[in-house]
Amino acid sequence: MQRHNLEHYNPPPDTGLSVIYADSCLLVLDKPSGLLSVPGRGEDKADCLISRAQKVYPDALTVHRLDMDTSGLVVMGRGPEMQRALSIAFMDRKVKKRYIAVVDGIVESNSGTVDLPLIIDWPNRPRQKVDFDEGKEAITHYRVILRDTGRNISRMELDPQTGRAHQLRMHMLHLESGHPILGDDIYAPPEAQAKADRLLLHASRLVLRHPVTFEEMEFEAPAPF
């Protein structure tokens, strides 16, 4: 189950954008699992969320990304000025993000924080690794919302304070005795991969200030799992 292997990129069919919000400044879209946020290398990887968005909104520009296998809320700026303003808000950690994840095993603590610095594992990229000397700060707050002892899984709310590559996958992998996200074909052992037919990670909530009116806006998209 090598879903992250882009040699066999097979995006979901284009059935139209799932638009959560649109105005003259920004778009909020619900990205399906299996679709790249931006084009990959090669013509066979040109189909992605931004290319689909630009067919409908030609001025749409990328602000941030979700991994191909992660679903959920993605913000785009309409035109370079809005793209820049929104990008700065993400970089300055002024955007609140929440994810829903289903992980292997029963998480014992009801809530807590994982604070483990991450860096790319170059010989094994795109894998990341924990590195206390050279890794970049990575912080995730978590809360258990359901424990299913029959299936030996836990449903989690994850609030990342930073936006490192694979941060949530890595932090769940290192939580307590290890709780990999189900369907994670990069880090999870085979039995946890086999419990789901996709990565069970979904960007469910975003709170940000409008780049022109500065009104606080909250967007939600329920997890499809």
TrEMBL record:
A Pfam short name: PseudoU_synth_2
Cited PANTHER family: DUAL-SPECIFICITY RNA PSEUDOURIDINE SYNTHASE RLUA (PTHR21600:SF91), MITOCHONDRIAL RNA PSEUDOURIDINE SYNTHASE (PTHR21600)
CDD domains recorded: PseudoU_synth_RluA_like
Keywords from the UniProt entry: Isomerase, rRNA processing, tRNA processing
Matches recorded under InterPro entries: PsdUridine_synth_cat_dom_sf, PsdUridine_synth_RluA-like_CS, PsdUridine_synth_RsuA/RluA, RluA_PseudoU_synthase
Coiled coil: none
Family designation: Belongs to the pseudouridine synthase RluA family.
Biological role: Dual specificity enzyme that catalyzes the synthesis of pseudouridine from uracil-746 in 23S ribosomal RNA and from uracil-32 in the anticodon stem and loop of transfer RNAs.
Protein name: Dual-specificity RNA pseudouridine synthase RluA
Protein EC: 5.4.99.28, 5.4.99.29
Domain annotation Pseudouridine synthase RsuA/RluA-like: ranges: 26-174
Catalytic activity: uridine(746) in 23S rRNA = pseudouridine(746) in 23S rRNA; uridine(32) in tRNA = pseudouridine(32) in tRNA
